[in-house]
């Protein structure tokens, strides 16, 4: 899942958001002011920031502007406020925020905003390693199948492989990339393998991977796993 930085000067709100998002499988970092937020952002490079607008030293919009002007706004930011106005929300959006949550924040709105923010920053598909032709690496083929890809009449031809075999546990991953992208690429292949093996049954995949069904579904959407190809043979 994602690493999320929660920035709020109220201890109760930090604790509540941390508990909810941790239950969702995310890793949570906490900051009570702009100074701590800067330090955590530099150290952890979070995937998402939940940023309170009204803070005692530097307000959230000012910190947002600072990150934007210095090229550090490389992650989605969701603004939060209990005293916000439409003008405040518009201003925050203008400076790079992707969403605005008004306190008190409902569980449904929080989870929806977080899910949408993370989906928008989903990693790109795995690219072929340098030096190999584009057809030589197929994410759906196991490593031993790549050696069987041949050229016939100018076209690449692969032997017929059963769906489960085509998603064998041996996969080729590009390791020379940021950790989060490499981790997400692995997780996507992992879930695609189990979906194919279980004929699209979300219940059996949830049992196999140890995830609750709702959590599993959100995870698959975040990773960009195509569920439509398994719907025809899926079981509840």
Give a summary of the structure in a few sentences.
The protein is α/β, with parallel strands linked by helices. Helices cover 45% and strands 13% of the residues.
Low-confidence stretches: 123-128, 132-170, 231-236
Shape: globular
Beta-strand content estimate? 5-15%
Which strand order do you get reading across the main beta sheet? 2-1-3-4-5
Query: What is the SS-derived class?
Result: alpha/beta
Nearest-integer average pLDDT: 76
Counting DSSP H or I runs of 4 or more residues, the number of helices is 11
Percent helix range: 40-55%
Query: What letter string, H or E per element, gives the SSE order?
Result: EHEHEHEHEHHEEHHHHH
Strand count, sense and barrel status of the largest sheet are: 5 strands, parallel
Radius of gyration, Cα only, in angstroms? Answer: 21 Å
Separation, N- and C-terminal Cα atoms: 24 Å
Question: In words, what does this structure look like?
Answer:
This protein is α/β, with parallel strands linked by helices and 236 residues long. The chain is 45% helix and 13% strand. It contains eleven helices and seven strands. It has helices at 11-23, 34-44, 60-69, 86-94, 107-120, 143-146, 163-166, 179-197, 202-209, 213-223, 228-231; strands at residues 3-7, 27-31, 48-52, 77-81, 99-102, 150-152, 155-157. Strands 2-1-3-4-5 form a five-stranded parallel sheet, sandwiched between helices. A two-stranded antiparallel ribbon has the order 6-7. The longest helix has 19 residues, at 179-197. Mean pLDDT is 76; it is low at 123-128, 132-170 and 231-236.
